[in-house]
Amino acid sequence: AGHPLVTDDATRSTARSALITALRGGTPDRRPVWFMRQAGRSLPEYRQLREGISMLDSCLQPELASEITLQPVRRHDVDAGIFFSDIVIPLRLAEVGVDIVPGVGPVLDAPVRTAADVAALPELTEESLEPIREAVRLTVAELGSTPLIGFAGAPFTLAAYMVEGKPSRDHLGPRTMMHAEPDTWNALASWAARASGHFLRAQIEAGASAGQLFDSWAGSLSLGDYLTHVQPHSAAAFAQVADLAGPDGVPLIHFGTGTSEILPAMRDAGASAVGVDYRLPLDEAHRRLTATPGADGRGAVPLQGNIDPALLEAGWDVLEAHVRGVIEAGSVAPGHVLNLGHGVPPHTDPTVLTRVVELIHSVAP
Ligand code: 1CP
Questions:
Q1: Sign of the CA dihedral running 191, 196, 201, 206
Q2: Catalytic: which of 41, 133, 279, 298?
Q3: Residue 41 is assigned to a ligand binding site
Q4: Does the annotation flag 254 for ligand binding?
Q5: With bands split at pLDDT 50, 70 and 90, how would you rate the model's confidence at 248?
Q6: Ligand 1 pocket mutation, candidates 87, 132, 166, 213, criterion most atoms within 8 A of CB
Q7: Where along the chain is substrate bound (predicted)?
Q8: Taking the domains of the chain in order of start, what are their residue ranges?
C-alpha cells in the first residue's frame, strides 16, 4: 500500500523488449538471453566491489546491489538484469538469523524443525523491504528499456534451507517433515510462501518487469509429493503477485533443476513460462507440457533454458554447436528465452559468456 504501481504497458519502457515479447509468446526483434548467476564471482568487477563486505550485507546496500546488478548487463549485452539479492534475504529482513558462508551457502543460526520453531517465526514487514525497493528503483532507472527480472525462492527450496539449516544434497529433512508432520510442514511452507511472495511483490511494485520463482531443489520430489505438499504453496506465492501479472502484466517464470517429471505441475502453480534445466531437451519439455494441459486448459507455454553450464568450458566449437541445438529445440515453443540450465559456474571465463550472447543475437528470431 502507498507504493505507486508501474505495471501497465503505457508506463513501462520494457514492454516491447525482446525478453517480455518472448515471454508473452510474441516474436521478438532478437533472441533474448540472460544467465542465472550472471552477477557474481565470474566477474572481476564483482569481486572487486564485494571486497570486505559480506554477501547479505551487500544485498541490503541499495547502490551496491544496483551496481552489481548492472555489471553483467553492461559487459555482456544480455537482454535482462537479474536483481542482485538472494532467496534468503527475506529471512534476514524478518530477523531470522541467517548468513551466507563463503564456499558453503546459506546457514541458519538455528534450524526450523518443530511446530514451536515455526510458530516463533517473525513475519516480514513492509518497512523492512525498503532497501530492496530502493535498489530496484535505482536499477530500473539505469536499465531504461532493458527489463529487470525480480525473483524469490519458492517455498520448498526456501523451507529446505530452513529445515536443514544449511545446504544439503537430498533434502531429507523437509521431505520427511511433509509426511511425518504435515501440519508443521504446511505452516512452514505457508510462512515461506508469504515471505517470498512479499519479497517478489516489492520488486515488481518498484519496477521489475518480470518475476522468477526459483524452486532449485524441487527435482528431489516425486510428482505426487510435489502436487500434494509443494504446489499449493508455490501457487500461494504466485497468487501474491497474480494481480500484477496476466496477459499485459508482468510475466512470471518458474524454474527448478531435475524437474523433468514435474514441468506441467510447475506451470500449473501459476507460471506464465517454465525454466528447464539442461537434463531435458526443450522440444521434449514442450511435448510434455502440450500433452498434459492444466485445469485452465493451458498446455504449451514459453520456455527458458537450457544451455548446459558444463559446456561453457568445453571449447568454442563444442559450445557453439550445443547453443545452436538449444536454439533449434527451443524454437518449437510459443516463446523461448535462452539461459543456462542452472547458474554460471564461479570460475567461468566471462568472455565466453559475451561470445555466447553474440552468437544467440546473430541467429535471426
Ligand atoms: O559471495 C558470493 O558471491 C556468494 C555467492 C552468491 C551469489 C552471487 C550467493 C550465495 N547468492 C548469490 C546471488 C543470487 N542468489 C542471485 C542473484 C544473482 C544472479 O543470479 O545473477 C540469485 C537469483 C540467487 C538465488 C539463489 N540463492 C538460489 C536459486 C538459484 C540457484 O542457484 O539455484 C539458491 C538455491 C540460493 C542459495 C544460495 N545462495 C548462495 C549460494 C552459494 C547458494 C546455493 C547453496 C547450495 O548449494 O545449496
A1: positive
A2: 41
A3: yes
A4: no
A5: confident
A6: 87
A7: 37-41, 86, 161, 216, 342
A8: 9-362
